[in-house]
């Protein structure tokens, strides 16, 4: 198994920032995990804790399983947004690498799951403003805004905890 302390070498600055922002409260889910690298680091950081990685459609979910490989500590789930987390008892979730409109829709479509979490880490690739104004306007969470740089681009992230 790869050592957790080498995580910075395996993640770029954007995902490393997210990993550091995620509270160590598990079970946790990486929603729209894609390549699964963040989910794997979340699992390696706390051996034995439950980490889910989700994908909306069968093709990407199958590719995610292939990339993680057999025996991976990450459990792959298939389904849109926060829907697959219903009833799993997750304490936290990450939604990153999509546009701000998509992340906002994911939260709006499953308010009971979103508000049942102790924390959410959000990091849109673009369209920060519509996500931020909806989150701030909802009054549901205490938001913490952070930022990082990768390849001359700034990425803003949000750590949300329910009020
Ligand atoms: C660009 S990748 C980001 C991967 C990783 N989260 C990151 O930040 O590097 C976006 C992923 O989100 C998935 N996705 C898009 N909409 C989704 C939704 N509503 N629910 C779950 N996954 C979704 C896509 O299939 C894709 O794999």
Structure commentary:
With 163 residues, this protein is an alpha/beta fold. It has one domain (4-162): Rossmann fold (3-Layer(aba) Sandwich). It is 37% helix and 27% strand. It has helices at 7-10, 13-21, 37-45, 58-68, 100-109, 111-116, 128-138; strands at residues 28-31, 51-55, 74-78, 92-96, 119-123, 141-150, 153-162. The protein has a 7-stranded mixed beta sheet with strand order 3-2-1-4-5-7-6, sandwiched between helices. A hairpin with a 2-residue loop joins strand 6 and strand 7. The N and C termini lie far apart (38 Å). The mean pLDDT is 95. It binds S-adenosylmethionine. The site of S-adenosylmethionine (SAM) has 15 residues, from strand 2 and helix 5.
Largest sheet: 7 strands, mixed
* Number of domain units: 1
Proper CATH architecture: 3-Layer(aba) Sandwich
Per DSSP, the total helix count is 7
Number of strands: 7
Task: Please provide the ordered H/E string of secondary-structure elements.
Answer: HHEHEHEEHHEHEE
User: What name does CATH use for the topology?
Assistant: Rossmann fold
Strand line-up in the sheet with most strands = 3-2-1-4-5-7-6
Cofactors, ions and other ligands in the entry: S-adenosylmethionine
Distance separating the two termini: 38 Å
* CATH homology superfamily name: Vaccinia Virus protein VP39
**Estimated share of beta-strand residues:** 25-35%
Q: Write down the CATH class.
A: Alpha Beta
Rounded average pLDDT: 95
- Derived structural class: alpha/beta
Low-confidence stretches: none
